[in-house]
Amino acid sequence: MWTLPMYDLTGFQRDLLYVIAGRDEPHGLAIKEELEEYYEKEIHHGRLYPNLDTLVDKGLVEKGQRDRRTNYYSLTRRGRREIDARREWEEQYVDL
What we know:
This protein is mainly α. It is built from 4 helices and 2 strands, in the order αααββα. The protein has a single domain, classed as Arc Repressor Mutant, subunit A, CATH 1.10.10. The chain has a two-stranded antiparallel sheet with strand order 1-2. Strand 1 and strand 2 form a beta hairpin.
């Protein structure tokens, strides 16, 4: 398992993390649909699933299995901490 912080993620991987954080154990297709709506273009499986696996490998996301064909994703405690740390960092620069 890698132990690099969130700044090591691509923007797409951060977006995946945020979508997973905002949903209750979403499956891959639900994540894909959410990002397609945001990006206003198709997200290919060949981009989606390897990036989800990277988040799992980094210890930010857990992957579970609903049935033989459907996996779901949820944040780990570390994933939640990384999102919180990112928000704190962003708040230094973005005055809302």
